[in-house]
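We now fix the convention by which a protein and its fold are recorded. The integers have meaning only within a learned vocabulary of local backbone shapes. A complete example follows; check for yourself that the lines match position by position.
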Amino acid sequence: MELNLKSSFRDVGLIQSRVNEIRKIISHPWAIMEICGGQTHAIMKYGLKQILPPEVEFIHGPGCPVCVTSLELVDKAIQIASSPNVIFASYGDMLRVPGSKQDLFSVRANGGDVRVVYSPLDAVKIAVKNPEKEVVFFAIGFETTAPANAMSVLQADTLGLKNFSILVSHVCVPPAMRAILGSPSNRVQAFLAAGHVCAVMGYWEYPPISAEFHIPIVVTGFEPLDIIEGVYKAVVQLENGENQVENAYSRVVTLEGNVAAQKVIRKVFETCDRKWRGIGNIPESGWRLRQEWEQYDAENRFDVKSIEPQESPLCIAGEILQGLKKPFDCSAFETVCTPENPLGATMVSSEGACAAYFQYSFKQS
């Protein structure tokens, strides 16, 4: 009989057994940040907060690439997509992310050729079929999407395409963790690291962070039992005064990660400072195209250097992304700001904290 892994990681008995073990050992309130928005949605969807002891507080991290793509880059995307003779390709979530004045859906409604794709290689195919058009792909994401975005550049180069470019908005998790831990207002006492990021990058970058800030980091998956197991391992360390990096997602993640994917990333991208929406500039927290690939950089092809973004004064997404506030602390939540009329990206993305709270009607801190 074939084992149904999904069912086993949602098994109520297994989950409750681990929760009971947490209840036995926990003696102190602990604030644990889950890095990934996918983990946030799982916590809300499966009611994990309600079944855990009240001493466990989840702080929702900035692990949503749509949410942290800077307003400046969103405005640049809108300006490029509005340009004549351009086909602008993007993942679907980005079309509804509000810029300073409009979003990419509005550009499409007004006649712009904005297309939803499921892979950057789809954008390359569009460029092949439309040689008379400039095709631009919005290359957003954490380390997880970087290999495919890098491959699109290599594929375009192999095909000799002159009409393909990418608007790069890559951000990296470890520098963001350092920025959060180094903030005077930091409350995070342990991290649940994003399993999909670690599947690509491994977790060799995390031990120095754990040692420097004396904080447990547990690589964690996305099923209910994965998250409960991550909490259990973090609580054990916190209660024992330990600070180690543990891998609770070993069926997917190894220490070294996907070495071949990392090699492709290094070939195409280099480290740079990056602005995070609502947070600000984090040094060496992003990737940009290396100089030898700059002909594929959309910012070089289009005049978008003088963008001056204007964020909604009502939106507190920056504080939510830093774990300083919850979505229901926002006066606009569920009133002025809804999924149909979002003020910030955290209400748009399928991994956004505000969208999770709205969808699952979670009203508790």
Q: What stands out?
A: The chain is about 40% helix and 20% strand. The chain has a mean pLDDT of 91.
